[in-house]
Amino acid sequence: MKKIGISLIALATALISSNISVAQTRDMSNPFFSEYQTLFQVPPFNEIKLEHFKPAMEAGIVDQLAEIKLITENKEVPNFRNTILALDNSGELLSKTRIFSNLNSANTNDQMQALAREITPMLSAHRDNVMLNMDLFKRVKAVYENRNSMNLDHEQLRLVEKMYKDFERGGANLPENKQAELRKINEQLSMLTLKFGENTLAETNKNFKMQIENKDDLKGLPNDVITSAAELAKKAGQEGKWIFTLQKPSMLPFLQYAQNRSLREKLFKGYLNRGNYDNAFDNKPVIEKIVKLRDERAKLMGFPNFAAYVVDENMAKTPENVDNFLMKLWVPALGRAKKERDDMQAMIDKEGGKFKLESWDWWYYAEKVRKAKYDLDAEQLKPYFKLENVIDGMFYVANKLYGVKFIQRADLPVYNEEVMAYEVQEADGRHIGVLYMDFHPRAGKNNGAWCTGYRSQSYKNGQKITPVVSIVCNFTRPAGDVPALLSFEEVTTLFHESGHAFHSLFTDGPYKRTARDVPRDFVELPSQIMENWASEPEVLRVYAKHYKTEKVIPEALITKLGKSAQFNQGFETVEYLAASLLDMDFHTQNLTTDVSSFEKASMDKLGLINEIAPRYRSTYFSHIFSGGYSAGYYVYIWAAVLDADAFDAFKKSGNLFNPELAAKFRTLLTKSGSDEGMTIYKNFRGQEPSIEPLLKRRGLK
């Protein structure tokens, strides 16, 4: 790694000293080396080839090192303009190549994965070469130490402090021998997290499938689920059979409705044991190395454990605060989950089943209990949630809250033919940004749902650069002549990810480093608050229309949906909290046993009942081992306190789209990086958040 870093510095120095134009050394047919000529300057996906990425990244590294060299060799006294702002503006070309990591998550293949393994250590070394550049750090530190005498405004002061903290947390204050140790740890971690993600992708999309040949084994399944399984089999060359996978649109309906208990067990265990087969895709040894290295890194930085290092920057501040918060919810949630278990066992007994409820039975009997208690079957709802209608509903809410418009654009390049592109405009037609949406599973796409960006909002020469944002999901596909009909969970997922998208689209900050920069346990507030509108009767009447008749969802169904809102919340809260507490254990305790034993001890300590598994078991817990939420999976429920409290303000106002509150919340999104998380929240709400609305919403009080 050291060799890569030194060679790039040497190249940058040679180019500068000989006055050679960097552009002259480059193949200008590479789209990254010139301004995009596309509408709104979105990435020209149709022109970008795999071979373009590495040269652009190498050139981007050279460019940024050259820009940094100009900063460090500046003879002027370090100040905001010649050091902090110059550094904030550096790395433009390298930033363009972030396209690669997005595509490697949403549209990858073997060649892309091979390239990822090649460039990951190179990028890790570059980050260290910047953060551990002592000449650069001296100038940043000089500005930081004199910041209060420089007549800086609030935004400038925040940028200085954030940048200094970046260097400090990046190891710049460490002695030289410790910096070398940190470089090695960072390189190893970058490759291990990549490996974890590759293993999980293969285990989910390639390494397991359940093929059914006997039609009797499909009893209980809805017709559209059977049709989808038949289409999967046909694509696999097994026409006349049915295939079920570990992708949730395939797996969950089977667990909910299939009468064949042994096949439910087979499918669920396939999901539960991903990355846990002691083979080439086994993630246990990867986890052991990641946890050990993270702990070493934290101790190098002067923290007792990795969780303390991570949470120090969050609203929670300490792991102890996180644990205390989670345990306050754990006790009532576990109590409710036990009651839910008992209800299902009672139903099994009533039906004459001579077996004890197991984890693979939960979804099946939960559906039965829901129908018995609320006369509501999830399949009754799906015909009213055609994907296109749900998209319209999400757009409707955004328009009512913020006045924005969405115009579908067929003239924008996309990275896959299934992707839809929209221009986002203000009410008066001003351009805000571009939103891509990618909805269905495929072999080269990671599991789950996320929002990402191809370009962040910024300013260049006084001109605003508008964002390019992408929502990626794995929703139910159309089946036969039936369009994509979503489960209500998928509906709320789309609203959730749209909240992240609006956060990115509305952000307007003067500096790259601080625009939209919020604590990890604040970042889910913009997304989770959007979920609330999805289930409001006033909103459902707008978008929930039967895919055949276009008739609005009946009031009776809306009432049943509302009454069942707290159904199964014990299970959902417990499986989530179990995963959150497991995450904290991995990053606060020494891993002295094997991973499986560690996980079991963690769950036994909590008293987790056997019928519920953590939402993510260790070997496929991508959020924390490859997805950026390490020692931070708790943030969803921390932010749930904020979103429940914030939405409570709208409800109590008597207007779901209260213009004054909507304007304040948009300001929260727009200026979220301009201050500390709680300060930003209190500017919106006028008070600190209360936990009461969350407890009430989940039926935990």
Structure description:
This protein has helices at residues 2-17, 50-72, 80-88, 92-96, 99-106, 110-131, 134-145, 154-169, 176-205, 223-235, 248-257, 261-272, 284-300, 306-311, 319-350, 362-374, 378-381, 387-402, 488-506, 525-534, 537-543, 555-563, 569-586, 595-606, 622-625, 635-653, 659-670, 677-685, 692-698, and strands at 210-212, 242-244, 405-408, 420-425, 431-438, 450-455, 458-460, 463-465, 468-472. The chain has 701 residues and is mainly alpha-helical. The strands form three sheets. It has a five-stranded mixed beta sheet with strand order 3-4-5-9-6, with helices on both faces. Strand 4 (420-425) and strand 5 form a beta hairpin. The longest helix is centred in the middle third of the chain and has 32 residues, at 319-350.
Distance between the termini: 54 Å
The count of helical stretches stands at 29
Oligomer: single chain
Low-confidence stretches: 1-24
Q: What's the story with the biggest beta sheet? A: 5 strands, mixed
Instruction: Tell me, briefly, the overall form.
Output: globular
Q: Determine the strand fraction and express it as a percent band.
A: 5-15%
Question: Rg to the nearest angstrom?
Answer: 26 Å
DSSP strand count: 9
Q: Give the helix level as a range of percent.
A: 55-70%
